[in-house]
Amino acid sequence: MPAWACYRSLAGRSATATGGGSDTGAQIVRRFCEQGSRVAFLDIDRAASEALFARLV
């Protein structure tokens, strides 16, 4: 498991992730959300993106 950066506070901050629907991109999206960020993400795999979105909301 990779070591993830954890900042003092990302609450209320915005982030954008490309390739965020699956694999490493999805992990990045999840971590930012866990830390309180508002995240916009996109991916060419629409089904994976929609599934991730459904899990996050």
Automatic annotation (TrEMBL):
This is SDR family NAD(P)-dependent oxidoreductase.
